[in-house]
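User: Design a sequence. Structure:
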């Protein structure tokens, strides 16, 4: 299964994407959200695009898209500090979303 990553010819400003690359990005976002829905049981989420500020030189910055699911596992520490603890290593989360690892357990046994 492919990684949820794609490099584009223009890496500084997302608005400079060609129509073809924009369509490819839409497909990648749709597939990412489909996998998130499967793995985390359809959470609410935010997605955002980080892009270079106006006037930035081409090589100074790379744009990227991020997806942040709203997960219900908030406890006192998170509420009290505003700091969230990620209980899954980023590498493992990527493997799960790529489909390399299948979660098991009562909430994932569909």
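Assistant: Done.
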């Amino acid at each position: 299964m492919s990684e949820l990553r794609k490099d584009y010819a223009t890496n500084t400003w997302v608005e400079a994407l060609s129509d073809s690359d924009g369509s490819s990005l839409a497909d990648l976002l749709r597939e990412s959200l489909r996998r998130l829905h499967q793995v985390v049981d359809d959470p609410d989420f935010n997605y955002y695009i980080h892009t270079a500020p106006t006037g930035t030189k081409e090589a100074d910055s790379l744009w990227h898209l991020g997806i942040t699911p709203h997960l219900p596992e908030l406890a006192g520490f998170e509420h009290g500090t505003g700091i969230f603890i990620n209980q899954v290593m980023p590498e493992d989360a990527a493997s799960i979303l790529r489909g390399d690892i299948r979660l098991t357990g009562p909430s994932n046994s569909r």
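Residues 105-110 have pLDDT under 50 and may be disordered. The radius of gyration is 17 Å.
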